[in-house]
Every structure is written in C-alpha cells, then in structure tokens.
C-alpha cells in the first residue's frame, strides 16, 4: 500500500463550472481510477508488473520456458477485495476512486491542460492536505451508516520508471517467498489456505499502488492523489458492519414530532457523467460539510481576458459561501489564447 506522508498545500485545477460546483456544494468528485483522463494508466501499470515478474523469475533461476509473461491477466488493479471481507466472512469487491491535485499551484502546463479551455477562465483551489486527509478519514468512519465501506489512501504519484520497477520487484520477491513457505507445509489444506492468503495480499498491494503509477512523460503534473477504496454494502452487510448506526438526524419532521425524523443525506453518493472520449464515467461526490472551510485555503484564478472581472466574481462567491478565511488572487502566468 502506498500511503504517503501528509503534505501542506496541494492544488486542484478546475474549470469555472467545476469550481462553481465544488464551492457551492462543498464537495469533490472522486473518479473511478479506470476512467481517468489518461486511459493508458492501467496498461502502463500492467506492463510494468509483467516486466518486473519476468525479471524476478530470471533472478530466481526459473527456466525461460516456464516464465509466465502476462501474469497480470489474472489481476485487475482497479477492483480489489475489500478489507471488510474478513469481518463479513465473504469476498466483496471494492473499487478505487481518485481526486487529483498538484503540488504546484501556478503551472502553465496545468493551467492549459486542466483549467483554461476555449478562452475561458480557470481556477486552482489551494487545499490543505492535512485537513483534507482528516476529513476523508472522518467520512470513512461514518460511511458504513450510509451503506458504504471506505478506505483512504493518499500519496505522491511516482513517475520514475526505475523506481516503479524496483518497488514492484521487491513486492514480487516477498510474494514468491511467502508462496515458497506455504508450499513447505505438510498439510494440504494449510498449503492451499496460506497460498491463497499470500495471493490475495499481494494483488491487494498492487491494487493500492497502481493508482500512484504514471508514465514518466506526465511528471510535469507533480500529482498528489487522494484515493478512496469504496465498497457499496448490501442491507444485510450494513447491518453487520454498522448495527448501531442509522442515517437519520435528530431533527424533527414537518409535523414537529420526534416520531418522524428527517433522513440525513449521505456525504458520499455515486453518480455518472460524461468523461474522457465521451465515456460514461462513474464517480462519487464526496461532501465535506463544515470541514470544507478548513480544507480550502485559497483560490487562484487565470484569465485570457479580464482578470479583475474574474477575480471579483469568485471573491463574491467565496464571501457569499461564508468562507471568510479563503484568499482570492490571480495568476501571473501568461497563456496563449
């Protein structure tokens, strides 16, 4: 699992429409990792793993004719076994959903690729990484009451191919050693169970690492990702995971009595939108509520045309949203219209 050290400010570049939705709803969209803007991410992580597998097998002295060169055909890095499976006694899947941010809040390439489109303005939202992580972990603790099991992973995306390869090779060596230990058992059932546990743990590790692997040519993005592993629980599963939690508030209903409580809206909800290349893209909208004020620290705008006009509009929205501690400024980076 790649769970990186928390960092200071990170920046989420956004279009005017995206920034408006974030600020008005105090929420972020976490996109299914299999549907990110770079469709080659999945293929690249597969390619790296297959290369690492072959190299390790050669180091271990496996004959060339016995080396499996497409080992990833058995894996799906963006769907995994949820950790809650052990408590439930059954295997249930989880999927990975990511929010992308950047460690540079005023980068020309990021403005051009992710914010400024068609001569319009763009925005970079400065987020406190520590506060965002805390808010997501709090959401994860409450999610079972709303029918979801959520795990939080965060970290810097790795772009250096050599380091990516060595990291995967190290994990493969540990995995093969565990398989070898399992095979030493004299009990057939014990051998089988230990081998299956080793395989589950290993592919689970790869699934947690895959969202943080990107091709070297994207290094300019300086990306820091917040990833949610989300499982949608069936009603009977929710009853086991969160037996004493409900999804109603202590407010009273329209008649004023306590017998008809008002349902509390889930802070995490599944949706679909048009994504890369027109694909129908699954995502989760994650509402931060009051914690949003601690997460958002500043907004930087960039405009081809009238910067004061753009700044005034976003400043009034910030003020009207009660975000009094959020500063607003304009970028000095000049872009071609």
Automatic annotation (TrEMBL):
What domain of life does the UniProt record list for this protein's source?
Answer: Bacteria
One Pfam match, given by its short name, reads DUF2971
Name of this protein: DUF2971 domain-containing protein
Q: Which organism is it from?
A: [Collinsella] massiliensis
């Amino acid at each position: 699992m790649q769970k990186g050290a928390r960092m200071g400010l990170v920046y989420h570049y956004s279009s005017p429409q995206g920034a408006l939705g974030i600020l008005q709803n105090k929420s972020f969209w976490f996109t299914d990792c299999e549907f990110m803007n770079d469709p080659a991410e999945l293929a690249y992580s597969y390619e790296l793993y297959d290369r690492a597998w072959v190299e390790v097998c050669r180091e271990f002295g496996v004959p060339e004719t016995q080396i499996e060169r497409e080992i990833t055909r058995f894996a799906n890095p963006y769907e995994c076994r949820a950790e809650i499976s052990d408590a439930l006694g059954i295997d249930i899947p989880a999927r990975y959903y990511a929010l992308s941010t950047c460690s540079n809040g005023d980068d020309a390439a990021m403005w051009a690729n992710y914010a400024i489109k068609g001569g319009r303005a763009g925005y970079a939202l400065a987020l406190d990484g520590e506060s965002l992580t805390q808010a997501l972990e709090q959401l994860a603790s409450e999610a079972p009451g709303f029918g979801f099991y959520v795990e939080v992973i965060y970290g810097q995306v790795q772009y250096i191919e050599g380091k990516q390869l060595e990291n995967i090779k190290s994990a493969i060596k540990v995995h093969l050693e565990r398989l070898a230990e399992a095979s030493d058992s004299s009990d057939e059932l014990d051998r089988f169970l230990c081998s299956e546990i080793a395989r589950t743990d290993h592919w689970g590790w790869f699934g947690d690492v895959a969202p943080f692997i990107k091709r070297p040519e994207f290094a300019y993005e300086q990306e820091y990702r917040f990833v949610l592993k989300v499982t949608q629980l069936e009603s009977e599963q929710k009853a086991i995971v969160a037996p004493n939690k409900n999804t109603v508030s202590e407010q009273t209903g329209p008649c004023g009595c306590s017998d008809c409580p008002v349902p509390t809206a889930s802070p995490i909800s599944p949706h679909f939108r048009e994504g890369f290349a027109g694909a129908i893209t699954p995502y989760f909208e994650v509402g931060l509520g009051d914690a949003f004020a601690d997460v958002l620290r500043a907004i930087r705008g960039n405009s081809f045309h009238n910067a004061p006009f753009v700044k005034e509009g976003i400043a009034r929205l910030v003020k009207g949203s009660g975000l009094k501690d959020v500063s607003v400024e304009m970028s000095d980076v000049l872009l071609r219209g």
